[in-house]
């Protein structure tokens, strides 16, 4: 596989680069805010993950066959558009257009978003989210599914982490709740994230355990720190068991995400309450 790789080929929404033989960077550039549309997920992000894994596995198999104890390393970084310092991903899932489809909730989460979350949570090499700006909604879920998170400190430009569904009246899919519980243990943080839709500053996100590092500077400073983290943990993939262990650690979340059910919306919930009361 040759890098850089742009996907989809005709109208690229992301670029995969390989700054070192064992480190890959996926840069999202679906507009400045990297909104997670079905096209971005299905035709760009999922194939990009396949390309990275395929290339790593080829190197890992060769190192294993040669009994090369230094071979088989690997790590992946995901970053928002690097030419701006405002968004990692605005998430949003393209609600404005997607909700026009009668099959939005029944198809979009089970067939598009949930497989992506499962793929990232079980990816066979360490993953690092380089959060170079606002990280909202599904964009925050994308970051939480990574193994490590590096975020701008917001000193150059404001940056928040936030699940804002409560503010526009959308229910959470089961997969989002499962990921939050798997990645964050504190119930008070669950309440702030899910029920209050709180906007975490980078410092607050660090204190809450939502991110592992905060960095002063622009997108390139965030990527540089993410590469440092990726380098430090890339050797964990040498044995081939990194993804297998994650499957056990996150087993409950993976099972719930795999059997996501249709979430109620505000109107259906009120109709059910009216009939009951």
TrEMBL record:
SUPFAM superfamilies, per the entry: ClpP/crotonase (SSF52096)
BP term (GO), one: fatty acid beta-oxidation
Pfam family, one: ECH_1
A GO CC annotation given for this chain: peroxisome
Lineage: superkingdom: Eukaryota
GO molecular function annotations of the record: delta(3)-delta(2)-enoyl-CoA isomerase activity
PROSITE patterns: ENOYL_COA_HYDRATASE
InterPro entries per UniProt: ClpP/crotonase-like_dom_sf, Enoyl-CoA_hyd/isom_CS, Enoyl-CoA_hydra/iso
Gene3D superfamilies given in the database record: 2-enoyl-CoA Hydratase, Chain A, domain 1 (3.90.226.10)
Family listed: Belongs to the enoyl-CoA hydratase/isomerase family.
Protein name: ClpP/crotonase
